[in-house]
Amino acid sequence: MTSLTFRNASMFDSTTGELLTGMSVRIEDETITAVVQGDLPDNGGASIALDGLTLLPGLIDAHVHVTAIVADFFKLSLMTQSLIAAHTETVLEAMLRRGYTTVRDAGGADSGLVQAIEQGHIVGPRLLIAGQAITQTGGHGDPRPPHFSHGGCICCGSAGLLGYVADGVPEVRRAVREQIRNGAHHIKVMAGGGISTPNDPLDGLQFSTEELGAIVEEADAARTYVMAHAYSPEAISRAVRAGVRSIEHGNLLDEQTAELMARYGVYLVPTLATYAALAERGSALGWAPAMLEKCAQVKDRGLEAIRIAQAAGVKIALGSDLLGDMHDLQCDELVLRQQVMSPAQVLRSATHVNAELIGASGRLGVIAEGACADLLVMDGDPLRDLRAFQHERNLRMVLKAGKPVVDRLTRAPA
Question: Which residues form a coiled coil (predicted)?
């Protein structure tokens, strides 16, 4: 058994949002076995004094697309899976080195990537997958360009990795069952229009209430849950009433809909970073004017949606939703949130709240006895300014399941 004790740490308590001083934390193998204020007796294992450094739980990103190695989904659909996997390995390792020890994929990643990480072939965060996001014909996530049929040939975009096109109750039931069969941890449904597809309006509704209900019913039967892409109040309301667990994006949220979400206990997963990045890079990427216009609409409403959700008592999670070479802006999500949330609230979203959302309370996103030893050591006090995360040199150590991935600490006797 390997043992490591951190001593004299300033520790972020993700349950309360407080910074506790003079803390000692002991890890044995993959598990945190002791958390005390004060010192722990020497047990003969390694010991590190964290004087002036902050100890935090590993971060969780609840909305990523690790296989979105380009920002054009049709182009992505025509790439070979082996090439995508090679690029994805780089994306995953970079996420882990930024301090994200767990990520929830919102469409595209498959169980092979999960196994590759678990077996040590790929260095990356703990990966939870939706498989293919379920969309309707012409819906968000349908990768086919206009005038292409639903044929089975690759030139029609039918090799798309993100979306699974299904119409009608029997088809959507089958679609959910296929994702579960292929190892999905949760189900993603496109309940409304999106910005990365030009012809589906942001306030458009996707899937009937019967279809949404069937999708949730199948997920429930498999003992999992549904995350729903939706922007408009009506699309959000229909998804909430159908029984989804989280609303992804939700930028056009209004007060009445936020109250409905709070009443049903549905989480909001804002993704501010992707709109900020696309506003800067979308034109260079060749995005159509209609797509850029939709991006501008939601970008301007994202912060207000968080304010509305907070006032209604909605649990606010954290996701980034970045694509292509924009993945390196992942920590911008933390910083953008500071305009409407305190640093402690943002970090709680990225740890405690996200752990609740993915069903891992007490195991992930927390420094507590019995929790997984996913830990970060940072210079100074990130609760004063989350911009510290944008500079990786401030991240002195990253541990996933007790194993160091980043180690820039200078060893000294405890």
Answer: none
